[in-house]
Protein 1
Amino acid sequence: MRTLGNGLHAIAAILAGIALILGTSACSWFGSRQTNEPTPNGSTTPASKITVVATLNQWGSLAKQIGGNQVEVSSILSPDTTNAHSFEPNAKQVTQMRKAQVLLTNGAGYDTWADRSLPRNVTRVSVADTVGALDGDNPHLWFSRDARQAVARELTEVFSRLLPEHKAYFESNLKTWQSDEDELESQMRERSKSLKDPTYAATEDVAYYLMSDLGFRDVTPKGYAKAMLDGTEPDEKDIKAFSDLLQGRQTNLLINNPQQSAQTDATLTQAAHKASIPVIDITEQMPKDCKDLTSWIDTLSESIISKVSQEQEHEAASSPSPSVGTQQETPATK
């Protein structure tokens, strides 16, 4: 595949809760950044706005950040979607997509239902096509720094072609968005400095690109990971290998996708909790309390790094000192 002591536990749990609260507030901080208003000479009536339909709400939020008040954006999949992989649009949603001027899709086999019977006058922006991803690649492209940057530039070009009189406005919004992304990347690098060779395992590969950008090493058992990518059920040997990894505390973190309701996932998350390994739930659609994609990633990265940092500190504190039980060699004993 191509891929672009109980007391300490209690304190760690309290700190993790505080970190999660702070992380949620980060959504509000990034989301509070508004797009620039167009100049008076560029004012238009609501009827002239570009109608954008995104298959995923996180990509829809990016389209709104670039398009500002010159676009009307709606999304098909939302946080309430149970399983994006088995989703099929209803008649109303199909009509919604066909009436769009711009259809923003993820691609890479994730939302193939959006490609059926589209009229020729719809401008389709495919994230996968923009970055060169193919069916069979990891499709969770919204967590890729490079994919977000490429799509933001592509949307700026598309909107500028459709409303050329507002090209400067769209380009200004792009610069504002890029500034937020640069700040996010800087924060992610700074937070990661506290970690030492961080590792993670995942019940589903939803956060592969995010964890890669954060500098984490994936230690998910290979057999399990292959079954996950192939969309098949892992066999008993692979599940046992994963359970053994968790029981042996051979990972700093377990990533779980709560939208996948397989019994195997529940078994593995229970094993992680029993071994006192932090578990982070990451959905495939942006939660309602995050206004945009940048703020969602900021919230996740802060929570992930906070929990793993606490886990590594606890692990270090629990390990015996190298000097314990060992006579220190001094000049007098040589």
Note: The beta strands are 50-56, 71-77, 102-105, 123-126, 199-202, 217-218, 254-256, 279-281.
Protein 2
Amino acid sequence: MLKLKRFKIMAILLAMMVIFTFTLVGCSGQEKPVSESEKGKSEQANSKYPEGPITVIVSYAAGGGTDVGARILQPFAEKELGTSLVIVNKPGGGGWVGWSELAKAKPDGYTIGFINTPNLMAGYLDPKLKRKENLNSFIPIINQVTDYGAIAVRPDSKFKTIQDVIKYAKENPGKLSVTSTGYGSDDHIAALKLAEAIGSKFEIIHLNGAADSRAQVLGGHVDILFANVGEVTTLHKEGQLRVLAVMSEKRSEFLPDVPTLKEIGYDIVSASARGIAAPAGTPQEIIDFLQDKLEKAIKNPEHIKKMAQQGLAVIPIKGDEYMKLLKKDEADVKKYMGW
């Protein structure tokens, strides 16, 4: 009888051990298989996308080149996407107030944003900032604009030509103030390139965006505006600014009367690429959907026409080519900023 009781006790203990072992396996770090029904629910949810408005983060102030381009694209993109876009300006930190928010946004396709090169790279390559985010924090969707650099002054400035600026800068190192849209931005790097080429220095004033930069120059607080063609074309044509030079391979179709730096002997090219990205982790089917719809909107002839009126050159680039462009800009920032 005693042996029978012991046998029963041992049998119960063995059964409990088996149950406990299976429980541990089930609760381990192994990924739980996704059932066909769960997969179906996920695909069904994505197939309904978008079901509401999409927030578009612009990391610069209203009125700047990125903001203008975003608002021109807005109605064309809304038509293709079948929903409304809510453009939110988040200036500051050389663009990283907005980009940090974009990187941390829920990756569900309802928050996307414009990324600007090389400013984006400067914010995470600068070792002093100790930023955790990098290019892998985003999924590039499609580029909208490549906007070449421009150098401009007030209409009443004593500098009538780019040669006047260069002559004064050479004779007065560090006394000529110039604008920048942030440390390591395309404007900043362009100013460094020109200063190096002429063997002088500029006093570089870092500001919150193109609109702020223009205001500082027009207000007489900064001598020279370093900006982009799309940010100065209208003001140049209206006589509110005088563009002295552009930093492209050849003269801009939007400013045919303005010489390139190359024409006067300085092999300097500078540009900012502005495209749209989503937070890392956004489902591929949503990325594919956004890429397809945004490409159609960007290539819309009416969109291209309206952008041209603002001096903005539409250059859609996607996929591997877009990533290649971003990687090249990343390499340039490392080179010129010493990072």
Note: The chain has two domains: 53-146+272-337, 148-271.
Protein 3
Amino acid sequence: MKKTSKVQPAIFYDVDRTYRADSCEPLRKAKERGELAHAAFARRSYPGYRLPPKIMPELCVACVWDAKQDQTWGLPMHRNEGIELGYLTRGKLDFIVEEKLYKLKSGALTVTRPWQPHKVGDPLVHASRMHWLILDVGVRRPNEAWKWPNWFTFSPGDLARLTELLRYNEQPVWQANERIERCFENIAEYVSTGQPEQVQTRLQLNINELFLEVYEMLQEQDIQLDSHLATTKRNVEMFLEALPKHIDYPWTLESMAKHCDLGRSRFTHYCRQITNMSPTEYLIHCRIEAAKKILKFHPDRKITEIAFSCGFESSQYFANVFKRYVGCSPKLFRAG
């Protein structure tokens, strides 16, 4: 049995260092089928009226949908390449962030960072009017420095404090106020024109006002800020948490370290701190644990197939490593 080549998974970055963001393809198709109203200014892979390159280049998308009935689609688990603000004006929505379900009701504000996986619909979207806006602030990992657009009108002090509130706190759902709703509805009015050049000034002003209202709302909350959320160590923690889902990729120490934007020695240092194992030991541990589950719950799968699906280069190498870690062969383990 020949092992097929595997594309490196996008835990943070793909092999060419291009981050894989959501394309909203289910939403695009639903609009084509006439299941909902949708308007957006967008660039990159997002659907909507295309934003000219020189108009707010950091704005990935500003969007609203209006679904008068329950939908036949949902947005699967994804990440975005910017800070995402969402607002539910009417209806209800199931919103899942890092596998935790939030039952959104009208007036709910969502805030997600590029490293927070989330999906909309569990599994389908309910009747709802939903707004969202994604602004690229130059980060893909928690420990990177935020770079706000030069068209933001915040004072340096307020911008630094806003960054702290969003960077050291990852609560994804808040109850918004009427001023935040007004900002989203104004933005929806502008994107519905389909003419970004004519509404650019008002759009910029309302996006600034929206972030100002969110900033003031967060200032009023009793938020416990956690600086660990923006450390390099947490970046490695997130990678290691995701690694068991990607054990079939032929990882090396170099490729794992590169995913965390670290050198091999520094990555190994953090990995030992977190797991008490070297990166190679932890990777083998993840693969052996996955193989044990498959052997136990899928008795009909061939040993060779299990070996390849868990990232081992051959069935013989798999058998040798398995016996060294478990104390018996895969066949004997399966037998009980």
Note: Residues 12-19 have pLDDT under 50 and may be disordered.
